[in-house]
Amino acid sequence: MTPAPVILWFRRELRLADNAALSAAVATGRPVVAVFVLDDETPGAWAPGGASRWWLHHALAALGTSLAAIGGRLVLRRGRYAEVIPGLLAETGASEIHAGLPTEPWSRAALRALAKTLPVKLHVHLTTLLTRPDAIRTQAGGPYGVFTPYARACIAAGEVPPAEPAPSRILPGPSIPSDRLADWALLPTKPDWAAGLRAAWIPGEAGAAAQLARFVAEALPTYAARRDLPGVAGTSALSPHFAFGEISPRTVWHAGKGEKFRAELLWREFAAHLLWHHPTIPETPLKPAYAAMPWRDDPASLRAWQRGQTGIPIVDAGMRQLWQTGWMHNRVRMIVASFLVKHLLIPWQEGEAWFWDTLVDADLASNAASWQWVAGSGADAAPYFRVFNPVLQGRKFDPDGAYVRRFVPELAALPDALLHAPWEAPPVALRAAGVVLGRTYPAPIVDLAAGRARALAALAAISGGGLEATAGDG
Hints:
The protein folds into three domains: 6-128, Rossmann fold (3-Layer(aba) Sandwich), CATH 3.40.50.620; 129-163 and 197-277, Serine Threonine Protein Phosphatase 5, Tetratricopeptide repeat (Alpha Horseshoe), CATH 1.25.40; 288-462, DNA Cyclobutane Dipyrimidine Photolyase, subunit A, domain 3. It is 46% helix and 6% strand. The protein has 21 helices and five strands. The chain has helices spanning 20-27, 50-69, 81-92, 105-117, 147-156, 195-200, 205-219, 223-226, 239-243, 249-255, 259-277, 299-306, 313-325, 330-343, 348-358, 364-375, 390-397, 402-407, 416-419, 427-433, 448-462; strands at residues 6-10, 32-38, 74-78, 96-100, 121-125. A five-stranded parallel β-sheet has the order 3-2-1-4-5, with helices on both faces. Helix 1 (20-27) links the parallel strand 1 (6-10) and strand 2. Helix 13 (313-325) packs across helix 14 (330-343). Residues 465-472 have low confidence and may be disordered.
């Protein structure tokens, strides 16, 4: 007699190696029904953006191939968790369910509600983080609000266990119907805007492993010195693989030894910690005073920012990199975000929403925490009076202009000294480079000094005048 199967519910851990939910399902010795549920309907859900949907299609295709290689099969279903999972239990007669721990508020709520109604045990495993978001507490028993002491507490909690290998074999469960991945229409049709994504990325667990190997061999030795330089391949570029759980944080933690790099992994943990304890941060400022921020409604400037047509070269380079590749260098993310919320005084939620739709590494916790950090309204925020000067940032971190020239080719012939502020170039230099401001390249949509002054005045207004208007413009 064939034993009752178990359901392995894939969520954001689309891999075989070091997957605690998969390991636990296989350890039962029972047949495994592996399933992925696409739920765009649960109330409160942030449905995947366009770039994430493109990546998800390829990640699921890769996962299906990997499961087939060890004897399994990936079943695809679309609908609300509350309806699909009980339906699968009825179809398969499964005796238990194993799933990864979600951090998104709506997923947590849906899982809690579902667990109360199921006739079998739902086992939830830590699959996408090093530590449960509720495991690290202050001495007073509350959540952390500042990164550095949080990171210290994580380190003090003990050594990170080594990653576990993928199982070599999985007992297949009963054959049940599956949706066709193509029918989910996750890929763009007309226009096909994904050519740059296809050229830049290889989604899937194998692609993640290859990217980690390249990073460790080529960039990790100089990571601390080169991670802020967008014109070189100095970062891991693992974030989209993390976002879809194609590689485990334990694998990367042990491969990426180094204080600076591990701090980036801990920032990801901190963001999940914040979202867990403050589930409204994707929509509302963590610091209540910022709800009164006098934001501007400026659709034309927002559109110019989204399309990389602001007339500020480092900002435009970053936004065009995002549009073309679905990714942006982390230093440039801070620059473009500061420009939007400070110089343009446009709500950070607008930037968050654009990143959510266009980033292949869109992660709710990291996206929300990072945007609030730049805006000054979040935990461990940059001093709220800090306004990144995009010209100074460009000259410091892209001194030879390699990054700007790649993504803003209409400025490529300008000399390095003029590249990051073409409006300061003498007419003869502009003519020699074939640049006509306002025609071949936009004039700045805001005067940087005036935009900074406007932002500081707005911040001072909501703080009761307690800001130092001369502080930090880096």
